[in-house]
Amino acid sequence: MAVNTALLDEDENIEVSLSDSYLTGMLWEFLSPYKWQLVGVMVLLFAVSGITVLLPYLIKLAIDGPITDGDMNGLIPIGVGYLVAVVALFAMRFAYTYWLQTIGQNALLNLRQRLYEHIIKQDMAYFSKTPVGKIISRMSNDIEALTELLSTSIVMVISSGVTLIGLVIVMLALNWRLALISFSVMPIMIAASAYFRAKIRVVSSHFHRVMAEYQAYLNEQFNGMLIVQLFNRQQQTRKDFDKVNQDYLNAHITQRDIYTYYGSLLQFLTTVGMAIVLYGGGYGVLAEWATIGMLVAFIQYTRDSFDPILQLSEQFAQIQSAFSAGERIARMLMVEPQVQQRPQTKAIDHFDQSIVFDNVCFGYEKGHDIIRGINLTVEPGQKIAIVGATGAGKTTLVKLLGRYYDIDSGRILVSGTDIRDLSFEDLRHYISIVPQNPYCFNGTVADNLRLFKSDITLEQMESAAETSCANRFIDRLPGKYDYELLPGGGNLSQGERQLLALARALIHSPESILVLDEATSNIDTETEVYIQEAMDRILEGRTAIIIAHRLSTVRDADRIVVMSQGQIVEQGSHDELLAQNGMYAQLYHRQFAEEMLA
Ligand SMILES: Nc1ncnc2c1ncn2[C@@H]1O[C@H](COP(=O)(O)OP(=O)(O)OP(=O)(O)O)[C@@H](O)[C@H]1O
Predict the structure, then answer these.
(1) Domain for residue 52, yes or no?
(2) CB under 8 Å to 312, separation ≥6 — which residues?
(3) Separation of 571 CA from ligand 1 center, angstroms?
(4) Which of 300, 334, 368 is the last residue of a domain?
(5) Are strands 409-414 and 355-362 parallel, antiparallel or unpaired?
(6) How far apart are CA 10 and CA 16, in angstroms?
(7) Do 272 and 361 share a domain, yes or no?
(8) Does 145 lie in the same domain as 49?
(9) Domain CATH code at residue 199
């Protein structure tokens, strides 16, 4: 079984390559509200670097001064000074880490907010093409990589850079001979870091790819667990999982090996560096161009100067991965919905519930039309049933009416106004769609009816549930409206979910045009009778479009429209269509025969 790599694809169709300065600009947009705090952090960083450089010098002062002279009183101010400097160092490190973490987290909070707002305004074309796992990965893994950058890497790079520069200057100023001896292993260390940095980047991007494959595999298998179990594929998926699991381990081991070699080499070079300083410095003391205090201070300086090099090389790998995460986020933020609300919208003065499809053409992909020149007028208050073979384009037509997608040519008018001239809010207010597979959110039945609108009363819910017949199952649930639904409404049947969605539509848009997409296809025959009664009540005086597979449910419609391959091939009343003996008659007789056999 192939691993789903959809999560890994950069398929946002954004062709531009994003420069580091663009990404820095994007991050700055979120950091800039905290610029004065950042200035404070910088001041602290400089102070910390200064104290780091000062400490070994205080040791030198103590050894070459009071200790050599046996002056205990002279040692006290230096000792106290050292203590104060160390305490200040800890306090400042704590302060800037805390401060920066807070700034970073607030900036990322705003970024997550922006990303979320951006995603929820996307159209259905976006959601049908973009795997949910990918969106979640952007909002979690990629944001996490940026957290590392904003809260740790930036501080490390700046403080390491400043400290290193400060140390080099002070060391050269104090004793250039000892300084040059201390720097002797640095070129090897820098070369080794450059070599391993390149290796680490490759290994870590491989690791991230394997990790995403692992997550994608789990996501796919758990989502499809019903099929896995129904078809006894557990053994096969276990084998596939073994492979994915092994790849994950291997990627981990490769990454660990590289870090271990690199770490060991640096340890070795540090020790060699110390030995060189000890030998060269000892020689300097004997030759009297260095003091013992100076030697001790230089041992400390040498150790201190290796740290920033290690930090810098480590952080560059982090920064690299944060920037590629930032690029993925930036690309996602650049995707604009194809279905947009016009800047100037029109309001409908008198909403008469009429609908006109005027020569409408549409295809999900260019050059492959699904809806081909549909002309259909629905008079105010009419009930139109749309029927046709599977894949005929019935649901697509309804999606166009709700502007899930924009038509390629033609017009759709609601109450005489082109739906593209309406605001989204008005359009959703005028047209209520009960989809094929209504989704239920985590929460109670009441939450799902209210849809987070707390001012909807229990009486309103009960009345809508009664009209739509949803009360027949709600009243049987333990706790009724307080019954907790499982994720996606897993503890309701599909028919019950459709009834709930119908009640929801009645509550939220009581005077809208009602579009039922096979809303009764999963309801048992007994319930269907109730639903028919309920429908008569619900649809009284309303314009409605009903897509149905069960032809028995649409017999009473004012007009039945038969679709085939994106076109209307027949229309008329039930009796007229039967008399025509065309496609509808065929469908009807076939279904009638099937029902007789069942
Ligand atoms: N998001 C999409 N992207 C590309 N093609 C799509 C998409 N949704 C549907 N289609 C295609 O459009 C055609 C019409 O689909 P539609 O869902 O409108 O049919 P339908 O008549 O409602 O079928 P059914 O009765 O089975 O629900 C089908 O061939 C389908 O494969």
Answers:
(1) yes
(2) 156, 157, 160, 161, 164, 193
(3) 21
(4) 334
(5) antiparallel
(6) 12
(7) no
(8) yes
(9) 1.20.1560.10
List the residue whose alpha carbon is closest to atom 25 of ligand 1: 390
| 323 & 253 share domain | yes
Percent of the chain surpassing pLDDT 90: 27
Contact assessment for residue 329 and residue 111, using Cβ atoms and an 8 Å cutoff: yes
Check pocket membership of 25 for ligand 1, CB cut-off 6 A: no
- Domain span at 313: 6-334
What span, in angstroms and rounded, lies between the C-alpha atoms of 8 and 21?
24
The last residue of one of the domains, among 334, 365, 397, is: 334
Tell me, using a 6 A CB cutoff, whether residue 360 lines ligand 1.
no
Give the least confident one: 180-189, 192-201, 378-387. 192-201
As a whole number, mean pLDDT of residues 277-304 equals: 89
Out of 312-321, 351-360, 401-410, 507-516, which region has the weakest mean confidence (pLDDT)? Answer: 312-321
Query: Looking at ligand 1, which atom is closest to the CA of residue 398?
Result: 18
pLDDT at position 493 over 60: yes
Give the Å distances, CA to CA, from 27 to 145, 181, 205, 543, 581: 13, 41, 22, 50, 66
Q: Report, as an integer, the average pLDDT of 339-354.
A: 89
Same domain, 362 and 499: yes
Question: 561 lies in a domain?
Answer: yes
Please tell me whether the interface predicted TM-score (ipTM) of this complex is above 0.90.
yes
Q: Which two tokens stand for residue 554?
A: 């649409």
Ligand 1 proximity of 392 Cβ (cutoff 6 Å): yes
Is 296 in the same domain as 157? yes
Ligand 1, atom 31: closest residue by C-alpha: 391
Give the strands of the sheet with 513-517, arranged side by side: 431-434, 513-517, 544-547, 383-388, 559-564, 567-572
528 and 430 together in one domain? yes
Provide mean pLDDT across the span 495-524: 79
Q: How far apart are CA 335 and CA 15, in angstroms?
A: 11
277 CB near ligand 1 (under 6 Å)? no
395 lines ligand 1 (CB under 6 A): yes
Q: Classify the phi-psi angles of 578: left when phi > 0, otherwise alpha if psi is within -120 to 50, otherwise beta.
A: alpha
CB 213 within 8 A of CB 3: yes
Tell me, what's the pLDDT at 361? 95
Tell me what the mean pLDDT of segment 188-204 comes to: 82
Q: Which pair of structure tokens corresponds to residue 194?
A: 């450059």
Query: Which residues face 433 on adjacent strands?
Result: 515
Q: Are residues 413 and 291 in the same domain?
A: no
User: How many CB atoms within 10 Å of residue 596?
Assistant: 7
Question: What does the alpha-carbon distance between residue 263 and residue 493 come to, in Å, rounded to a whole number?
Answer: 58
Q: What are the pLDDT digits (tens) for 410-433?
A: 999 999 999 999 999 899 889 988
Mutation probe of ligand 1 site: the residue of 126, 362, 364 with most atoms within 8 A of C-beta = 364
Does residue 390 lie in a domain region? Answer: yes
Residues 180 and 298 in one domain: yes
Atom 4 (ligand 1): residue with closest C-alpha? 364
Fill in the DSSP letter of residue 539.
T
The verdict on residue 344 lying in a domain is no
Give the number of domains in the chain.
2
**In Å, how far from its chain's centre is CA 439?**
20
- The CATH number given to whatever domain includes residue 476 is 3.40.50.300
Contact 430, 512 (CB under 8 A): yes
Distance, CA of 284 to chain centre = 61
Average pLDDT, the chain: 85
What pLDDT sits at residue 407? 94
Alpha-helical segments (H) within 287-381? 292-334
Q: Does the Cβ of 364 fall within 6 Å of ligand 1?
A: yes
Q: What is the pTM of this model?
A: 0.76
